[in-house]
Amino acid sequence: MPATLPVAFLLGLASTLHCWGMCGGILAAFTLGIPGPGVVTGGFRGLLITGFNLGRVFSYAMGGLVAGAIGNALVLLPLRAPLFVALQVAAGIILVITALRLGGWLRSGAWMERVGARLWGKLQPWCRSLLPVDRLWRALALGALWGWIPCGLVYSALAWSAASAEPMAGALTMLAFGAGTLPGMLAAGLAGSRINTRLANPVLRQVLAALLIAAGVLGPLSSLYFAAVSGHGAHIH
C-alpha cells in the first residue's frame, strides 16, 4: 500500500525526535564505544557510524519482511476481507497510541516496550561483546542488533508492515521507516554530545504526532470504506 510508505517515513522522523528529546541521544552508547581520534581517523569514524546505521536499517527491513509474511499468512485464511480490515484497524490503533505518547498527550502505553524488553535483554550481552567498535563489521553487527531495541515507534511501523499483508511491502515499509531515521541519527552520531537538542522541541514532536494520528485514523477508515464498496459490488453481481 503506497500510503504506508510516507506514514512509515514520518514515524522514522518522529523516532529520531523522540530519542533526541527523551533519551539524550540514542547513539550515546555506540559513539562511546568508538576509539578516540588517536586510534581512528575522522573519516573512518564517519564510516563506522554509517555502517552502524546501515545495519540498523537492515534489521528493520528484515523485521518488516517477517511482519509482512505474517500478515499475508493471516489474510490467506478464510474470511480474508474481514481479517485484512482487522489488521488495518489494529495497525491504526497502535499508531494512534504511539502518536499520543509522542505528543505527550498519553502517559500510559509503555507495554509495547515491555513486550520486547525480554528479547532486548538477551541481545545486550551480544552488543557489549562488539565493543570497542573499531571495525566496520562490528559497526554493522551492532547496528543490526540495535535495531531490535524496545521502541513503540518501531513496533508501530512493524504493525503497518504486517497490515500490508505482503512480505516485500512490509520490508519496504520498514526501509521507509529507517530512511526517516537516517538524517537525524547520522547527525547525532557525527555531532555526538554537541547535537542541538532544540531540534527536538515539543512543538515539532506534537506536529508530527498530529499527522500520525490523522494517518492512524484515516488509514483504517479508507480500508473499511473500500471493503464496504467491494462487498456491495459483490452483492450486486
Count of extended strands: 0
Which structural class matches the secondary elements? mainly alpha
Rg from alpha-carbon coordinates: 19 Å
Largest sheet: none
Average the pLDDT over all residues and give the rounded result: 80
What is the helix tally? 9
Report low-confidence residues grouped into runs of 5 or more.
232-237
Q: Tell me the domain tally.
A: 1
Give the termini distance in whole angstroms: 27 Å
Beta-strand proportion = under 5%
Can you put this structure into words, describing what you see?
With 237 residues, the protein is mainly alpha-helical. The chain has one domain (4-236). It contains nine helices and no strands. Helix 7 (152-164) runs antiparallel to helix 8.
Structure described in brief:
The protein has 237 residues and is mostly helical. It contains 9 helices and no strands.
Which properties best describe this structure?
237 residues; disordered C terminus; mainly alpha; 78% helix
Lay out the secondary structure:
Layout: H1 4-23, H2 28-32, H3 42-75, H4 80-102, H5 111-129, H6 136-146, H7 152-164, H8 167-191, H9 202-236
Helix pairs in contact: 1-7, 1-8, 1-9, 3-6, 3-7, 3-8, 4-7, 4-9, 5-6, 7-8
